[in-house]
Amino acid sequence: MQEKIFFYYTNDLHSNFNNWSRAAAYFKEKRALHEAEQTSNWLVDIGDHVDRVHPIAEAFMGKANVQLMNNLGYDIATLGNNEGITLSHQDLFHLYDEADFQVVCSNLESMTDDQPEWLEMNTTLTSKGGVTIGVIGLTAPFNAFYHLLDWHVSTPFDAINNVLNRVTKKADIIILLSHLGINEDRAIARKFPDIDAIIGGHTHHLLRTEEKVNETIITAAGKHCAFVGEVILTWDHTQNELVEKEAYTTDITHVAKDLPTEQLLMELKEQADDHLSSPIVHVDEPIDINWFKPTPIMERLTHTLKNWTDADIGMLNAGLLLDYFSAGTVTYKDVHRICPHPINPCVVKLQGNEILEVVRASLTKDFMELKLKGFGFRGEVLGRMIFSGIDVITDVHPDGQEFVKVITYQGQALDPEKKYSVATADTFTFGRLLPEIAKSKSKRFFLPEFIRDLLLVTLKEYFSA
C-alpha cells in the first residue's frame, strides 16, 4: 500500500498582502479536499512573513502576521531574518506567544538566561498511516546583527550536525525548512543525504518543479505569495520506504480572493492606521523631498545620523524618503509611509582614498537611478547621496556627467591614508553597491533603531512649529 503525504508552503511574504487572501482561498480548497479524502497534509511557512514595511506589521510588531497565519491554520513555521533582526529582543521573544502553530528553528538561541517558550529545535509529525516526519528549521546566521539583539544563530552545518542524528532515530522522512538561500540549500543537500526535502526561501528563488541534488529535492516559491508551493511524498508501506518525492509551485495571482480573509485584512489595516495615528510634530509648511537634489530634510537627517552615531562623516541616499510631508500634523503613520525601510544605521571605518571612491561612485547617474530591490531598501531609486561632515565640490563634464573636484573635512583635504568613521545606511554593507563600504573590516551596526527613528528625531528637532 502506498500513502501520499502533502506539504503546502509559503515563503518570503514580506508582509505583502496583495495575494494573501488568494493564498487563503487556495489552501482552504486544498485542505478541504484532503480532509474529504483523509490524506495527511500540513501547511508551513519558511520565514520573512513579517516585514515592517507594511503598516499592519509595524503597528503590531509582527503579531498581526501571526494572527493571519493562525486564521489560515498553519501547522509549522520557521524564522527569517526579517523576524529575527528587525524586531527588538523582547518583540521577537514574544512574537509567537499566541501562535497556534509550532515554530521550529534549530539554530536560534537567546543569549539571555531565558528561551522563548515557543521555540523548538525540531518537531515530529505523524501521518494518518503512521509515517513519522522529522522537521528541522534553519535561519540565516546574520550574527553581526543578532548579537546586538542578544540572539545567537549557529552555522547551518553545525546546527544540522547537532540535531540530525536525534531526528533520524525517530523519523522515517526528514524535511528541512530553510531560510538560508538556494546556494546553502544545495550545499546542505550534497552534505546531508538523510534530508529528503528542503523547502527553501530567503533568496526569493522560484523553482516551478523540484530541483534534485543527489536524492534530496529542493523547492521554493519566490516571494510575496504570487506563487505557493506543494511537496508530495509517497511512502510505500509494503517496502517501508519513501519511493517518490515531488514538488511544484503554483501561480495563484488569478485565484479569486477569500472574502473572510480579505475582511480580516481590512480590519487589521484600520486598526493599524488608528494605532499609528499618534501625532509627532506640527509643521507650518510642506517639507519637500527630491531624490536627485539636496533638500533641507535630507541634509538634517544625515546630520542627525552623524551626530547620533558620533561619526566623523554622515552619508545617506535621498531615495530613502519616498514622499513629501504635508503642512499640518505629522503622525507616525506619515513617517512610516515616507520612510518604510527596515534599514539600520551603521558606522564603518574608511580611509580618505576609499571615501573619495565612495563619493565618486554615489554621484554617478547609474547609482542614483538604480532601482534597487532588497538589502532592506523599499523605495523606487537610490537617489543622490547627501553628506554631513565633509564638503563635496563637484563640476560637470561636457557630456553632462558630474564629477568630484575636491572633498574637504574640517576645512582640509581628506588625508588619503587616514581612517575616518562614516555613518550610513546598512544597505551599503551588503553586495557590491559601494564596495569600499561592504569590504570595510570595521562595521558597527545600531539595532533595533531604523533610519526612520532618526527621522523622528530630525522632525522634532528641526521642523517642529
Written account of the structure:
With 465 residues, the chain is an alpha/beta fold. The chain folds into two domains: 2-272, Metallo-dependent phosphatases (Purple Acid Phosphatase, chain A, domain 2); 277-463, 5'-Nucleotidase, C-terminal domain (5'-nucleotidase,  domain 2, Alpha-Beta Complex), CATH 3.90.780.10. Helices cover 30% and strands 28% of the residues. Helix 10 (296-309) packs across helix 15. The chain is globular and about 80 Å long.
- What separation lies between the terminal Cα atoms? 76 Å
Question: How many runs of DSSP E, i.e. beta strands?
Answer: 25
CATH class annotation of the largest domain: Alpha Beta
Which fold name is given in CATH as the topology of the largest domain? Answer: Purple Acid Phosphatase, chain A, domain 2
Oligomeric assembly? single chain
Secondary structural class: alpha/beta
CATH superfamily of the largest domain: Metallo-dependent phosphatases
> Strand content of the residues, in percent?
25-35%
- Helix run count: 15
